[in-house]
Amino acid sequence: MKLFVFHTPELTPTATVADCAIAVDVLRATSTIATALGAGAEAVQAFSDLDKLLEVSETWAPDKRIRAGERGGAQVEGFDFGNSPLACTPDLVSGRRLFISTTNGTRALQCIEAAPVVLAAALINRRAVVQHLVQHKPATVWIVGSGWEGSFSLEDTVCAGAIAHGLQAELGCSLADLAGNDETIAAVSLYSQWRPNLLDLFYLASHGQRLLKLGIIEDLKYCAQEDILDVLPIQRELGVLVKH
Ligand code: MLT
User: Fold this and answer.
1) What does the alpha-carbon distance between residue 66 and residue 78 come to, in Å, rounded to a whole number?
2) Which of 73, 80, 84, 217 is the most exposed place for a label (fewest CB within 10 A)?
3) Of 161, 97, 98, 171, which is closest to residue 132 (Cα–Cα)?
4) Beta carbon of 104 within 6 Å of any ligand 1 atom
5) SS3 of 242, please?
């Protein structure tokens, strides 16, 4: 298995696809997707465009859908939810489809949607992702960070490093064997340094600071936890993720 980390959708190759591609948006889209599926959502359907989301979700019965829209960290007016994983409680999401559009995370999912296997990873479901990779052993794996509007983000890179670190331990392989690019090695270094203090790293991160300015602190604490959800979001049809 060769693992490649790309920091943003913009840096992800377009001429080829990996055997397995993984979108990461720790703060907060992929944390929200895993949490919604863990709380019993029927599926999560991701859109980069808010108008398209409204058009497609309009064909669903209102009691079977939740519309989640986030831009700049804040909830989009007129939507049921913003992008908080903590809003995804079983009483609100169970049996319903979450239609979601976020600033960067849903774009990352869209950029890898043509891969044969598409997963969504965050720190909270890291182990489930590692176990899937260990079981299926795809030859090439891409981890695509969402970043922020084309720029690198600490939280997505540390999650990529956490996945690579877990794979090394499970497969018993060296970083030289696993890493397909320099970004993978840098991600593992970042994780090794910050592993005991992931929340402190989020407080330093530019998007962590953006969320803190909006008064969003509980989401940061929740998203900084590792392996608390045994949920693997996997794409069943273009843009639609279900619990594996
Ligand atoms: C994004 O897609 O950029 C994020 O998930 C933003 C957020 O924290 O809601």
Assistant:
1) 11
2) 217
3) 171
4) yes
5) strand
Instruction: Give the atom of ligand 1 at the shortest distance from the alpha carbon of 102.
Output: 2
8 touches ligand 1 (CB under 6 Å)? no
Our answer on whether the CB atom of 27 is closer than 6 Å to any ligand 1 atom is: yes
DSSP 182: H
Q: pTM (2 decimals)?
A: 0.97
What SS3 string covers 12-24? CCCCCCCCEEEEE
Walk along the chain (244 residues) in steps of 10 and give the mean pLDDT of each run: 97 96 98 98 97 97 97 96 98 98 95 97 98 98 96 97 98 97 98 98 97 97 98 97 96
CA gap 239, 49 in Å, rounded:
12
Residue whose Cα lies nearest atom 6 of ligand 1: it is: 73
Q: 88, 36 in Cβ contact below 8 A?
A: yes
Q: How far apart are CA 44 and CA 196, in angstroms?
A: 31
Rounded to the nearest angstrom, the distance between the alpha carbon of 117 and the centre of ligand 1 is 23
Compute, in degrees rounded to 10, the torsion defined by CA atoms 4, 226, 129, 104: -60
Measured between its terminal Cα atoms, the distance across the chain in Å is 21
Q: Which of 72, 23, 28 is nearest to 219 (CA)?
A: 28
